[in-house]
Design goal:
It is built from eleven helices and twelve strands. It is of the alpha+beta class and about 375 residues long. It has a seven-stranded mixed sheet with strand order 2-3-4-11-5-6-7, with helices on both faces. Strands 9-8-10 form a three-stranded antiparallel sheet. A two-stranded antiparallel ribbon has the order 1-12. The protein starts with 12 loop residues before the first strand and ends in a 10-residue tail after the last helix. It binds nicotinamide-adenine-dinucleotide.
Amino acid sequence: MGKTVVDNPSKAMLRNPAQVESLVAAIFRAAGSSGAEARTIAEHLVDSNLVGHDSHGIVRVHKYVEWASDGLVVPNRHAQVVRDSGSAILVDGEFGYGQVIGREAMDLLAERVKKHGSVSLAIRNSGHLGRIGAWAERLARERIVSVHFVNTSGFGILVAPHGGSDRRLSANPIAAGTPTIDGPPIVLDMATSIIAEGKIQMMRNKGERLPANSVIDGSGAPTTDANLFYADPPGAILPVGAHKGSGLSFFCEVLAGALTGGFASNPDSPTCHRLVNNMLSIAFDPSTFESSDFFMDDVRRLAEWVGGSPPMKAGGSTLLPGELERQTRESREKHGIPVDSVTWLQLAATATRLGVPVSDCAQ
Ligand code: NAD
């Protein structure tokens, strides 16, 4: 299948993931979180860096801390079950950290799947849920199959609908995961926007041009300048796969926003002043409809069949969903996580402001 991904260390300094995780946990403790909450947030963020999604990693720390000090995310909140019919559960996150709300909700979902076979769980009013694939992965490790639809109400509205020219939707990720019989889970984790906003932030930090045809400027014209995305009037991200991604994003709003009570995209919603993630998760025991043995065998066969397609180009690879992230994790666990200088300076400034000593966490 794939080849190993090696980061280009000239672009960023490699840092030791365990040391960075301790530093980030200390920052969140100093920002008012309990020790357990601080560790949960730090683990999730550094894990995103480990799998290569730097846009959902430690680059977020300074914003999260700023939101906490402005009361936009509330430390030490837990997933509150507000409706429960056994196999359909509604959880309110009460604007707590998404890393905690997501983890508690997924653990409840896993427990219920073991009892009922298939269960849907809706989360509304959560803080940023981070890398959504982490939730599918957590369930797959419990041998549960799942799909997740996410929207952002409030200030995550960044994406133009297909054919439109301004921000009406959010990056609205969809994730899905399955256990495999003898290997790691297979996890799809994708924004329905061509590029995640965090990646635009990262590219701006590194002074890189954006990929062509991913962003339009405030006048609706295509641009590769990350600064124009943040200009006034602001630019917008385009949906993935043109009209098809735009349609998928619309239904993320329906399923994660309207259905959960967390609000579909709406700049005038009661939560429009803060970043709120809502998520609908639907989860299955592999034996819900057929035997677990059939399911596991068929998934193994499918993975071999699809992954075995000869690469289109010499030296290329045919990857399964989540395979790139697995390869990146292997490499970064060994070599460290690359952190660009802007991200590091922001992290260090946040730590210093909170009285947390900063070491360089060099790998
Ligand atoms: P991406 O484009 O890097 O990857 C999308 C999917 O494609 C992944 O499952 C990946 O394994 C797969 N993939 C990548 N390269 C492949 C290849 N060559 N062949 C086959 N499959 C391949 O991800 P993204 O869409 O930029 O999303 C980045 C992260 O941002 C995700 O973790 C997502 O959950 C997160 N996100 C979160 C929010 C939020 O509101 N919390 C919003 C948007 C995005």
